[in-house]
């Protein structure tokens, strides 16, 4: 009997443009869940996700987390949400699958920079 691949780790690599990072969820069969603007939520091979770049594991899932994460992953694939840079990008989707708060530290960083720029403009 063949087992169904389950999520095992939150992973990331540099984006193809070199600006920012691309997040995904590694599964037990070495495939990866990702969410992209062009393709949406999908499963790709390790090689496709890595794209000849080093991949870093951010956090490993415990055995007790894998089943709930597998259900969330299935939901992401069966009822995909439209990609949105601000609210449903690769980082928010991957965080949601592994049970973390669906947020993007990269987008939050952009908001912070924009806010600081506005303050500087207002002070001048």
Main features:
single chain; 124 residues; alpha+beta; five-stranded antiparallel beta sheet; 4 helices; 40% helix; 26% strand
Task: Describe the protein in words.
The protein is of the alpha+beta class and 124 residues long. It is built from 4 helices and 5 strands; from the N terminus they run E-E-E-E-H-E-H-H-H. The protein has helices at residues 46-50, 63-78, 90-98, 105-123; strands at 7-14, 21-27, 31-36, 40-45, 56-60. The protein has a 5-stranded antiparallel sheet. Strand 3 (31-36) and strand 4 (40-45) form a beta hairpin. The longest helix is centred in the C-terminal third of the chain and has 19 residues, at 105-123. The chain is elongated and about 60 Å long. It starts with 6 loop residues before the first strand and ends with a helix. The model has no long low-confidence stretch (mean pLDDT 89).
Give a brief rundown of this model.
This protein is of the alpha+beta class.
Give the helix/strand layout.
Layout: E1 7-14, E2 21-27, E3 31-36, E4 40-45, H1 46-50, E5 56-60, H2 63-78, H3 90-98, H4 105-123
Antiparallel strand pairs: 1-2, 1-5, 2-3, 3-4
Biggest sheet overview: 5 strands, antiparallel
**Overall SS class:** alpha+beta
Residues in β-strands, percent: 25-35%
* Shape call: elongated
What is the number of helical segments per DSSP (H or I, 4+ residues)? 4
Mean pLDDT: 89
């Amino acid at each position: 009997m063949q087992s169904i691949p389950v999520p095992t780790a939150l992973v990331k690599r540099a984006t193809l443009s070199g600006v920012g990072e691309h997040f995904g969820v590694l599964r037990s069969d070495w495939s990866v869940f990702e969410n992209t603007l062009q393709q949406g939520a999908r499963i790709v091979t390790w090689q496709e996700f890595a794209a000849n770049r080093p991949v870093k594991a951010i956090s490993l899932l415990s055995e007790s987390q894998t089943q709930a994460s597998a259900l969330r992953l299935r939901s992401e694939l069966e009822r995909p949400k439209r990609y949105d840079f601000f609210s449903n990008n690769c980082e928010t989707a991957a965080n949601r699958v592994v049970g973390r708060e669906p947020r993007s530290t990269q987008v939050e960083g952009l908001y912070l920079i924009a806010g600081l720029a506005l303050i500087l403009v207002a002070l001048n």
